[in-house]
Amino acid sequence: MTAEEKILYKLRKARRKEERLAEALTKIEPKESSETTHDPEILTPEEHFFFLKMGLKCKNYVPIGRRGIYQGVILNMHLHWKKHQTLQVVVKTFSPEEVKEIAVELARLTGGIVLDIHEENTIIMYRGKNYSQPPTEIMSPRITLSRKKALDKSKYRDGLRAVRKYIPRLEGDLELLQAQAKMQAENKTEAVEDFQNANIDSINSQGISNLQPENSDKLRELLAGNNESSEEESLTDSGTESCSEALSDIFESDSDTDTKEKAEQLLYLNEFEKFPVESDGEPEDFEEHLRQISADSRKAKSLEKDADLPQLDEVDQMFLRAASLLKKKRR
């Protein structure tokens, strides 16, 4: 079963249950008789205010639970009115509208007067000016339900309330499911349309791709012809270049040999120029040559000393130089 079928099944079952409970309630409710007529006494505003104040202060009360109104409730009310003028009827597990209906029903069955409904759950009632203890038939009327039947009636009533709350919720769930199904159907139609459009586009693209290989084959043939012509041109160019290179090698070989001979000659001349010039076995200006040699040796020694010395300040260097000059003078 799908979710929609389950909800429909539950909805049919709930509606059948609602009909069954409604029929049971109509059967169990007591039949109304013409004997129970209510003609309440008329109270002045002062009397109404006085009895209402008395009823709010009094402590005697009759509770009404889930069974509602039955024979025992009416009997208890008459027993309280035997000694008290006012009475509080505390109603539980009923809505404010149902409390009003209960107040009207109690006034009709007991013959009392409803003064006020306090805090939506307490009915304040007055027994009347000319009240007298009624006979047992009136104190526990037959038109009311017994204790057991009142309990069955409350069960049927509670079940009917629950079913009437449950049916709208099922209807809402069913509407949501139907809306979701419509949305899914629309999405499926859109997906089918998109798929068809995609197929059409693919067919068109395949036709274009079939045309493209034919054009590409033609282009390849043209490129192959161009490549062949370019290869022939490159071969002719390479032949001409090889001829020109052979001629250039011939001419370059002669020029290279000439340059090498000239370079060898220059090298030998440079080496001969380095030798000292002698005239008749004696060099020119021999004394000056000796002086230069001695000066060069002194400079070399001084440089070696300076290199051996540690790094000193200018003042220390001056003192060292002065000491060296003094030593030379003493020698």
From TrEMBL:
Ranges of residues in domain CRM: 41-138
Region of interest (Disordered), ranges: 276-305
Keyword terms: RNA-binding
Keyword ATP-binding assigned: no
InterPro entries (alphabetical): At3g25440-like, RNA-binding_CRM, YhbY-like_sf
Pfam families, per the entry: CRS1_YhbY
Superkingdom of source: Eukaryota
SUPFAM superfamilies linked to this entry: YhbY-like (SSF75471)
Listed SMART domains: CRS1_YhbY
Molecular function GO labels: RNA binding
Basic and acidic residues composition-biased segments: 288-305
Protein name: CRM domain-containing protein
Taxonomic source organism: Vitis vinifera (Grape)
Taxonomic lineage: Eukaryota, Viridiplantae, Streptophyta, Embryophyta, Tracheophyta
